[in-house]
Amino acid sequence: MSTPRDSGLRATGEWALLAGVILSFFLLRIPTWPLLWNGDEAVSMTVAHAILDGGVPYRDGVDHRGPLTYYLYAAVLRVAGRFDVTALHAAFAVLVAGITWAVHGCTRRAFGARAAAFASLAFAIMAYTVGRPADAFAFHTEWPLIAFTTAGAWLCITSTDRDDTRLLWLSGACYAIAASSKQVALLDAAAGGTFVVLGLAARRRPRAALRAGAAMVGGFALLLGALLGYFAIRHALGDFVTWFWTYNTKVYMATIGWHDRVQSLGKTFRSISLGFPVVTALVAAVLPWNLAAIVRSLRGEPARLPPETLFLGWLVSALVGASVSARDFGHYYVQTLPPLAILSGAAVDRLLAWLAPLLSRWKPSLEAERVGTWASVVLAVVLVVTSVGPLERRWSSRAGHRWDPDQRAVGETILSATRPDDPIFVWGMASKIYIYARRECATRFSFTNALTGYVPGVGDAAGSNGRILPGAWDALIADLARRPPAIIVDTSPGDISHYGSYPIAQFPRLAELVSSRYEPATELLPAELRNTFHLFRRRDTPPGSAAP
Fold first, then answer.
1. Does 257 fall in a domain?
2. Which residues constitute the domain of residue 180?
3. Residues 434 and 337 in one domain
4. Distance between CA atoms of 357 and 51, rounded to whole angstroms?
5. What is the pTM of this model?
6. Alpha helix (H) ranges present in 1-141?
7. What is the pLDDT of residue 434?
């Protein structure tokens, strides 16, 4: 018979286990902190620099992702220093730890402590091994997205339990913040709202359903209105709409057809299933039961919608969100990790709820609760053992690996050849050079796709002229006149990121500026890089000295 002391000991063990999981994976990430893992991080850092200089994203620092990540970067870099990659990744590790805690809390609220323990372990392992190292260790925009979609789902579940509409305002606000990190969070918001409204409708409470839906929409609209108001006050609303919405819908996604996007959904599912076989198998094992329970609930027997409804809907929305652009970027899969982990925890709890009574009837001396505890431990061990290979490979790829040694060498050359306050400009998609050089971007374009029409995921240059953003060239030339770069780096000779199709000579306005005001300085580079990158030094630039 359970006593209050037993319950207290179990609670202590539960939280100790969660703390152990969070701490272990936090420590595993420490060796990854000094490395710049992905070019998206470099772009976000340059946009953060514009914010720190009093500017705003999209107008003063161009990119087409959501603004939340840029402001998180700016907050860290304001404290730690403008080029402090280590501090950025330390903050990222804290964020992942917080998401692990939120996954545990959301699962515990919906399914209990046993499910929560497994879900938090599953999430921590998947977060460390998802995609490639450049996906799991880089501070991508998907990580803030899942932080707030998890909070939104947690509030949805809590509101359902407490019948408290006020929490749905907060849930809607959380989903809006998630959408300000990445647009596809709109799909997750729809999944959360559908669960709340359907749950109340199934209980024959149509007015409550309307109030709940209005509360979520209201919370979302308030945050969205505040975001739009901020950019309007900063006289950058047009830039925000152009880059955050129009460029993504009319250019970035429009270059790939719907047939490819549908195929991408299957590829995403296969990649996740192969990457996380135990978690996927657990979710699939109880899927028929979950679907049957949802159908019965919608028919009014029982009237309460099972919480799996929310997380299955969220998993579907995350799979669609990860696939909609039809680009096989591993960090897109991050969106699926919280619902997948939560559903795996729920599956463990469901399977053990079936198994324990059967074993107890077979052997009456066995206590159902004890059987469930040991069986959950066995499943957790299976999860860890099957993850040893991916964990070991990921650990081996951590510290000491010199990512993009060519861009690093170019950056270090510029560092020694310029003064700390000299801006530079990189033609192409090689934004890491700014960070390795510890030099500011001279223009709002830290990568130049808007000027060439190149779209990642579309290999050739055919039709790219039609994708050049109107006004982009005027903005570039104005930026270069206002803040002339000390050095221009041309990445087209080495075809870096397909920029061999876009040599500077193909763009007369930039070619004329380079020929009239700059002189070749490629000899500054190591001999092995002189056919890959070309440097041009401004003619009135005094000799630089190595930065301290």
1. yes
2. 38-351
3. no
4. 60
5. 0.90
6. 4-29, 39-52, 67-80, 85-111, 113-129, 133-136
7. 96
Tokens of 533: 């990158």
Residue 370's pLDDT is 57
Which residues contact residue 88 at a Cβ distance below 8 angstroms, ignoring those fewer than 6 apart? 41, 45, 73, 76, 77, 80, 139
User: How much is the pLDDT for 6?
Assistant: 40
List CB contacts of 188: < 8 A, sequence separation 6 or more: 149, 152, 153, 175, 178, 314, 317, 318, 321, 335
- Banded model confidence at residue 3, pLDDT cuts 50, 70, 90: very low
Q: pLDDT, tens digit, for every residue of 14-58?
A: 788 899 889 999 998 998 899 899 999 999 999 999 999 999 999
Helix H, strand E, coil C: the string for 501-525 is HCCHHHCHHHHHHHHHHEEECHHHC
Number of alpha carbons in the 13 Å side-chain half-sphere of residue 411: 21
Pairing of strands 424-427, 487-490: parallel
For residue 427, the cross-strand partners are: 490
Residue where one domain finishes, among candidates 351, 382, 416: 351
Residues 40, 432: Cα–Cα separation, whole Å = 9
Are the CB atoms for 457 and 520 separated by under 8 Å?
A: no
Residues 6+ apart with CB under 8 A from 513: 477, 480
* Domain assignment of residue 26, yes or no: no
- Burial, 224: exposed, middle or buried (Cβ in 10 Å; 0-12, 13-18, 19+)? middle
pLDDT digits (tens, 9 = 90+) for 475-532: 999 999 999 999 999 999 999 988 999 999 999 999 999 999 999 999 999 999 999 9
Q: Say what the pLDDT of residue 198 is.
A: 83
Distance, in Å, from the CA atom of 393 to the CA atom of 390, rounded to the nearest integer, reads 5
Provide the 8-state DSSP code for 234: T
Quote the CA–CA distance of 214 and 236 in Å, as a whole number. 29
Instruction: Note whether 417 and 502 are same-domain residues.
Output: yes
Q: To the nearest whole percent, how much of the chain has pLDDT over 90?
A: 59
The count of residues in the chain is 548
Residue 318 domain-assigned (yes or no): yes
List phi, psi (to 5°) of 469: -70, 125
Half-sphere exposure of residue 393: CA atoms within 13 angstroms, side-chain side: 11
Q: How far apart are CA 142 and CA 181, in angstroms?
A: 7
Max CA separation in the chain (angstroms) = 91
What is the DSSP code (8-state) at residue 65? S
pLDDT at residue 262 in the model: 80
